[in-house]
Amino acid sequence: AAQLFTGVVEVLPEHPYARQYLEMAQTQAGLAGHGSLQVDSTPPAMIQLDGRAVGQTPVTLNKVPVGPHTLIAEAHGVRLQRQIVIQGRTAHATAFVFREVEGP
Known about the structure:
By secondary structure, the protein is α+β, with helices and mostly antiparallel strands. It is built from 2 helices and 7 strands, in the order H-H-E-E-E-E-E-E-E.
């Protein structure tokens, strides 16, 4: 659609809606390549997405590229890892639960 409206803007640059429709089509095309991800944990944990620190839970990540990703949560010296797959224009949510380990 973005290519179509680019052509329309080139042919009819003064059309009152052509640029508006082009901008909307470009926005939608960008959204197709990204999703969002909400991460929570008990207790709160530091989160990494593909090896990059992104914050402490709860955290919401917008514009996560479509495709597979490695998600790591770390709390109290314990590290949990999970593989996730992000789909375009979709909100995803995941949660980590750290279980307490009792001493001997």
